[in-house]
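Please, structure for the following, as tokens.
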Amino acid sequence: MGEIIKASELDAPLSLKTKVCIIGSGAGGAVLAMRLAEAGIDTVMLEAGPLVSSEDFTLREDEAYPLLYQDRGARVSGDGAITIMQGRSVGGGTTVNWTSCYRTPEPVLRHWSEVHGVKNLTSKRLEPHFEAIEKLLSIAPWPESLSNANNRKLFTGARKLGWQVEPTRRNVAGCVSSGYCGMGCPVDAKQAMHLTTIPAALKAGMTLIAECPVLRLEKEGARVSAVVARAQAVGDAEPKGQMIRVEAELVVVSAGALNGPALLLRSQINPGGKVGKRTFLHPVVAMIGRYAEPVHAFYGPPQSVASHQFIKPQPGGYGMFIESAPVHPMLAASVLPASGLEIADLLADLAHMGALIALHVDGFEDEGGSVSLRSGGLPKLDYPVSRGLAAAMKLSHKRLAELSLAAGAEWVASLHPEQMILRNKADLKRLDGLEYGAFAHTIFSAHQMGGCAMGHRGVVDEHFALRGMDNLYVVDGSLFPTSLGVNPSQSIYGLAHLAAEEIAAAVGVKL
């Protein structure tokens, strides 16, 4: 059995030597760690966030966001226009995501091959890895009959309009439909990494160090000679505990599409000046609908139905897909177009509120955003909302409003500062008079991708190795040359399952 170390409890500096050091414990790092450890490869995993369990999941938003999210749930783009929801605990985003799982779409893989030169990621090659992950994490379609009313509104409205719609596949086992996936599953039904691959890796001998943000990678020529980290206790604003130093034959960055590029930039590793470039968000806009009957969008699976009716590029150059979103009180209060007594009245009516979201597919017609460093070394994401994206968001609002009304909403509202109430299809044209773009309305992201892309336009080769370095690899969503047009977790799981073979081979082990 491996060892679990809480870095904040160390009373002296810690130095370790290992075969492989993995930085990050989310969908990429955890799957990779399991396969390497089970192959007998000495592995150390470093995670900035805390080690958590269902005992820590109080289902209170005011406690969950500070405990489980980057920047205490307040991470935003460099200009503050886009809210970025991103996990920060052992298990990473898998601890707080809404469980929707998709294989990487074939058209996306084909685009990566034809435009970005990524020839090694084909459906045929990935299929056994996706199959293995689906079995391991109990990924299966969620019955539409078990969806909550919020998701059934999406299903009903899309069917009425003749739009494509289908249940999502979810990585759950024994789900009780609590509705609190975003705050950590209270019954351990979500098959997140802290319950699945990380325990398997620990059983096989891996060492896990939590509360241990990595400061930098030390280099000797083209090799990483050491990973340098420092303990950060839960609740502390910055690392100020004991120093941790890990020397490894091979280092893997699995810290996500914002923290991973920032770590490389802090370490002055930036082949071709491309690290952090082409970072994608699936930028999201939302529409709130008010229904006569209660929909209780704060209960039940938060996301169990989706429509890809408009996945191909629309006017503005962006495709988009439609899903539902949970409507918990604190989250709702932060985005509803009201304040003071108005927000109190809306929250009193929360049981009748449903939410639909449109996620825009970036990276095919644009360059996305870019990660740089703030003055203290933390990641800064600059993400311009272009005219084309703003036009796509306006069209998406019309689609969401039309869908909500078709599903029976009494009225719908876009999340602009000024409250715009639409009561019928004829009202949709009123959206033309509203501004769209940065700061004009709520924009958020729960999917961060790119920044260390694979392919000839990126920085990672077909073996998952960072170009120009002899022992440094990247395995997480930052590998994607574009966004996906689907929720990214299963794509990361599958790529990590495949990457384990390449990385094991690099240390002389065949999987």
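Residues 296 and 351 are 5 Å apart (CA to CA). The chain has two domains: 4-120+183-279+450-506, 144-172+284-361+386-442.
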